[in-house]
Design a protein that fits this description.
Blueprint lengths: L3 H13 L8 E2 L12 E6 L9 H8 L8 E5 L3 H13 L2 E7 L4 H9 L4 E4 L4 H12 L2 E2 L6 H17 L5 E5 L4 H13 L4 E7 L4 H8 L24 H10 L2 E5 L1 H13 L10 H7 L11 E6 L6 H11 L4
Parallel strand pairs: 2-10, 3-4, 3-6, 4-5, 7-8, 7-10, 8-9
Antiparallel strand pairs: 1-2
Helix pairs in contact: 1-6, 2-3, 2-6, 3-4, 6-7, 7-9, 10-11, 10-12
Length: 323
């Protein structure tokens, strides 16, 4: 488990040095977004630099990177954007591996920051990274299974508590599990009565299956890809799994139609949130979070804003919903 001093030191340093910014808590969004029956506040990590919470962890992970070394990692987009930003700020060098299914706009953006991008099938990403490490002495930075990342993500929980100490339910998107683990571990330390839930797509239920089977699982590649591309890493992270299994009440699952509806409802309400960042709203709209009452004080982490007009139009067509 993380230590509170560790989380607070990381938060203070990344904020003070300007690598991340405090994000707002948009209150009472049930007045804007249809299908929400509880008091719901959104932690808008979609308004973080580079459009997602990832920079909170990556700035801590790469705070002291050596400009003489080459760094490498794998990402479907948001970690990659944060990775590219830190390399730019630190004048470092790096190579990023991305799944072939990642949105092309994200690849182009990362390349525009001067970071070479190579694509692979999701099942081949880890092997490609390890090959580069062995052949060129590149330094591998895990994109979700790293204590430094989790400590950075704990800052989300610190800010929620400062802005809304009455909180009793927190809902966090889950892919490799880094953000969920960091938030859950921090609430265990500052307000253990808070019920923390993770949300995964049905088509990428890796952490859900890991908890069910008692050990980290790999992505089920027999499932079709989810539109929440940021939530389908090759496997569940070991460190996140160890924390989530103790500090998270439950992982709930949402399907593709539920995710599309959440993205479009948020957009129509004036909130630009990508599919991966909208799964918490999807879970609430579809009544997947158990034992909520009218008095529950709910915070949903909306974790990213990197969605294009082209993607929104496709969701609209697929869902047969008019924006």
């Amino acid at each position: 488990m993380l230590e509170l001093d560790e989380i607070k030191r990381c938060y203070q340093r990344t904020i003070t040095e300007g690598f991340v910014r405090r994000t707002p808590l948009f209150k009472h969004i049930q007045q804007l977004v249809p299908g929400l029956s509880n008091t719901v506040h959104c932690k808008m990590e979609s308004l973080q630099y580079e459009g997602s919470y990832k920079l909170r962890g990556v700035s801590n992970q790469m705070m002291d990177c050596d400009p003489n070394l080459t760094y490498t990692s794998m990402s479907a987009g948001n970690y990659g954007r944060a990775f590219a930003r830190m390399l730019e700020l630190k004048k470092g060098k790096g190579i990023l591996f991305m799944p072939e299914t990642a949105p092309k706009e994200r690849m182009e953006y990362i390349r525009s920051k001067g970071v070479p991008v190579e694509t692979r099938k999701t099942s081949e990403l880890e092997g490609a990274v390890q090959d580069l490490v062995h052949t060129s002495n590149a330094v591998y930075l895990p994109s979700y299974d790293d204590r430094r990342l989790l400590a950075g993500y704990g800052g989300i929980a610190l800010e929620i508590m400062e802005d809304y100490p009455e909180v009793d339910v927190v809902i966090v998107p889950c892919g490799g599990g880094g953000a969920l683990a960091g938030v859950a571990a921090t609430f265990q330390l500052i307000k253990p009565s808070v019920r923390v839930f993770g949300v995964e797509p049905v088509n990428a239920s890796t952490m859900y299956e890991s908890l069910r089977k008692g050990e980290p699982q790999t992505l089920n590649r027999n499932n079709p890809p989810t539109i929440a591309a940021g939530l389908m890493p090759p496997n569940a992270g070991l460190i996140p799994f160890q924390i989530i299994s103790k500090a998270v009440e439950e992982i709930v699952l949402v399907n593709e139609d539920e995710i599309r509806k959440a993205v479009l409802d948020l957009f129509k309400s004036g909130l630009k949130v990508e599919a991966s960042g909208s799964v918490g709203i999807a879970a609430l709209q579809s009544n997947k979070i158990p034992n909520l009452t009218k008095d529950s004080n709910v915070v949903v982490v909306c974790s990213g804003s990197n969605v294009t007009i082209r993607e929104l139009s496709k969701y609209e067509n697929d869902a047969n919903i008019s924006l």
